[in-house]
């Protein structure tokens, strides 16, 4: 390797960026595009304009938050309560970012670039980054990741626009099927993502079950109620379960505190 | 549509709504993540709690979309929507947690049910 300290040239930044763009063609990216197709349909059905829907995709770039925002707008939730609900649905982005940054950064990566990169962190890009970047040389990581992420986001802004416009022209059965994509996709992907986290599975089930009750209590604040109450109950149950498992493990011998142990024997 | 989202009759108000409740509500976490990178772990109980709340919140949105839908989906029966989702979930389990298979099965069931007049 010649001159390891002096500039990884402008050219190599561009080259790695282009390589990241090419990596966009992948199964996870297509699954995400299908999900964004659903969001375009949902936004249209909820009275959100085309420009607003595309802006949400680009500015928020996290489907759960986007769906929460649109749901809150539709339910007539006040600004502050909406901001709280959306923030709660987005907190996971913080630990995700904290875990990814040490992998993406090079000692020469400027802080502003890290902040810019962080905007593109959401589940699909995060999994991509955590699995692909460690095998790349340090200076290549930021441009490669950015190439992938910016392509993913731009394409999905386009998908949002097309599906929003299409759902206005589609026959009712197809438009309805498009809106149904979002809940279907989320149930399945959350269920799978929570494979090793029984607490999250309980949160998923309890949150759904609590919705009709919360809706009867207060349509505007349904989301906050289900999130806080459902999440708290699921967390408490999860702790109880974990404690019981640990107690059993202690009897067995090598207990310690392996968080990975949680749910390892689950299914 | 009317409600807080277009409560203030100005073209910029929905954008303020989107910026505050959308962009800021998300990017503040990402920016905090950059600022604190490497200091807190995902295994801490605080994050387990936060994750549970976030999951329940999104679960609430999912349930709302199925139980109190909008647009063309509102014209369908609750049994059709719940049935389609249940079939999708069953297919997903049978296909060893393959999301695409589950989504496709649910969608096919939904369209078939629509034409069958359920």
Report on this structure.
The complex is a heterodimer of chains A (267) and B (118). With 267 residues, chain A is mainly α. Chain A folds into two domains: 10-171, no CATH class; 194-267. Chain A has twelve helices and no strands. Chain A has helices at residues 10-22, 27-45, 50-60, 63-75, 79-90, 93-104, 111-118, 123-132, 138-169, 172-193, 198-217, 222-252. In chain A, helix 3 (50-60) packs antiparallel against helix 9 and helix 11 (198-217) packs antiparallel against helix 12. In chain A, 48% of the residues are buried. By secondary structure, chain B is mainly alpha-helical. Chain B is 69% helix and 0% strand. At the A-B interface, helix 2, helix 3, helix 4, helix 5 and helix 6 of A face helix 1, helix 2, helix 3 and helix 4 of B.
Short description:
By secondary structure, chain A is mostly helical. Chain A has twelve helices and no strands.
């Amino acid at each position: 390797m010649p001159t390891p300290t002096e500039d990884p040239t402008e050219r190599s930044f561009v080259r790695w960026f282009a390589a990241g763009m090419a990596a966009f063609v992948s199964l996870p990216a297509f699954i995400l595009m299908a999900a964004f197709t659903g969001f375009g349909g949902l936004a249209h059905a909820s009275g959100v304009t085309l420009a607003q829907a595309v802006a949400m995709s680009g500015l928020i770039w996290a489907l759960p938050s986007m769906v929460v925002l649109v749901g809150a707008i539709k339910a007539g939730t006040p600004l502050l309560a909406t901001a709280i609900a959306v923030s709660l649905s987005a907190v996971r982005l913080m630990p995700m970012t904290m875990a990814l940054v040490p992998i993406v950064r090079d000692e020469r990566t400027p802080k502003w670039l890290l902040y810019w990169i962080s905007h593109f962190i959401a589940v699909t890009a995060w999994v991509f980054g955590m699995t692909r970047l460690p095998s790349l040389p340090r200076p290549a990581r930021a441009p490669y990741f950015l190439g992938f992420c910016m392509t993913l986001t731009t394409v999905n802004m386009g998908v949002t626009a097309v599906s929003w416009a299409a759902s206005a022209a589609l026959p009712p059965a197809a438009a309805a099927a498009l809106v149904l994509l979002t809940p279907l996709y989320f149930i399945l992907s959350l269920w799978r993502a929570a494979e090793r986290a029984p607490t999250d599975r309980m949160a998923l089930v309890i949150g759904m079950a609590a919705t009709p009750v919360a809706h009867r209590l207060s349509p505007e604040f349904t989301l906050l109620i289900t999130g806080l109450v459902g999440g708290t109950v699921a967390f408490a149950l999860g702790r109880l379960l974990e404690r019981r498992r640990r107690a059993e493990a202690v009897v067995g011998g090598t207990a310690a505190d392996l968080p990975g142990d949680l749910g390892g024997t689950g299914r | 549509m009317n409600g807080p989202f277009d409560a203030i009759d100005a073209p910029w108000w929905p954008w303020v709504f989107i910026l505050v409740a959308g962009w800021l509500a998300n990017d503040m976490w990402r920016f905090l993540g950059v600022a604190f990178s490497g200091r807190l772990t995902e295994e801490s109980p605080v994050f387990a709690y936060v994750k549970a709340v976030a999951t329940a919140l999104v679960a609430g949105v999912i349930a709302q979309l199925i139980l109190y839908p909008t647009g063309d989906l509102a014209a369908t029966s609750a049994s059709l929507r719940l049935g389609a989702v249940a079939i999708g979930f069953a297919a997903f389990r049978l296909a060893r947690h393959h999301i695409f298979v589950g989504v496709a099965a649910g969608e096919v069931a939904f369209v078939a049910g629509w034409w069958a007049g359920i």
